What we know:
By secondary structure, the chain is of the alpha/beta class. The chain has one domain. It contains six helices and 15 strands. The protein has helices spanning 4-11, 43-50, 74-83, 153-158, 229-234, 291-302; strands at 38-39, 92-96, 101-102, 110-114, 130-133, 169-173, 178-183, 186-188, 191-194, 196-201, 241-245, 276-279, 305-310, 314-318, 340-342. It has a six-stranded mixed sheet, sandwiched between helices. Strands 1-3-6-7-10 form a five-stranded mixed sheet, with no helix packed on it. It has a four-stranded mixed sheet with strand order 5-4-9-8. β8 (186-188) and β9 form a beta hairpin. The longest helix is centred in the last third of the chain and has 12 residues, at 291-302. It starts with a helix and ends in a 13-residue tail after the last strand. 41% of the residues are buried. Residues 1-17 have low confidence and may be disordered.
Amino acid sequence: MRTWIPWLVACWPLMTFGERINHEGRALGPAPVVKTPLLFNTPEADAVVAAMQIMPRDNPWNEDISKRPLLPNSDAMIARITADLAPNRRTLRLFTEMNYVLVPDNQPVVPVKFVNYPNESDLNGGKSAVGLYPIPANLPIETWPVGTAALSLVEWQQDNAKRGGDRHAIIVQPGTGLLFETWESKLVGNAWQASNGARFSLNSNTLRPAGWTSGDAAGLPMFPALVRFDECKRGMVEHALRLVVKRTRVGPIYPATHAASVGNTSDPNIPAMGQRLRLKAGFVIPPNWSIQEKAVLLALKKHGAIVADNGGFFSISITPDERYPKGCFEHLNGLGIDQFEVIQTTGPNEAPRGH
């Protein structure tokens, strides 16, 4: 008898063939099936996203960068990021902004007119400024419902209050592995329009074409970067986060594909789109901080945050989920920028990425 057979018999009860394990080593269970559109702030959506491998295991968003070397000018870059901000904005901010909807494979597609960047949008065959996207009636637009006061979802879709803003929208189709993201999204009458539309595969490391934007100025997807309710509840955000800084320089770096330099500067001490920052290993996570704060801090140490857009804050994006306990992020909204460092990022041919 072969020597491995007794071992196999002894270990059989411990072995589960075909078990789905994600990049963090967490068992995912059966592949999720979505039968009807599910909003991000529901237990049903939690169960689906918790069972998904969001982007490949070796994708940059899932990379373990805890041991990556620092850039030689890390201190200078952190100082510049800080100095560019107003004195009362020189700490981390968590913005409750990006939401999403999960849709089934057979979700009907509707036309979306792209009004500003049709040449950098994923269109219907590339023959017009219109794309066919699987938009459900309950598509949430950025900041709904936490930041939209008494407005109904339809009123917010139509922007009846003329609040404007970036108005990002995110549609996830787990069955097909497709992700659709737009910005300046608006329902005009019965028709949708947006500045730009991007389609990503959650099962591929393929980037946008060089020079193309997306819902984010860096040309990156937003959904894989969001701090979600389900992962905070588990105690670990399992991916890199979306980071906004005041200014970025000319030229994106991997995995970004698009630049939007403020002032058209090439100063090497100003971060590029795609630049990755990490919370310092020496930062001791206070034991009395909330489980949500600890989940974010663990992610910032292991996966870091990727510069994705310009704005007036040093901020990361969390879902506008009313289920978060009141004040659960209050300590993070004050974490000093000097607790971060800038690392040497990896390139497209450096997988596997430390897992």
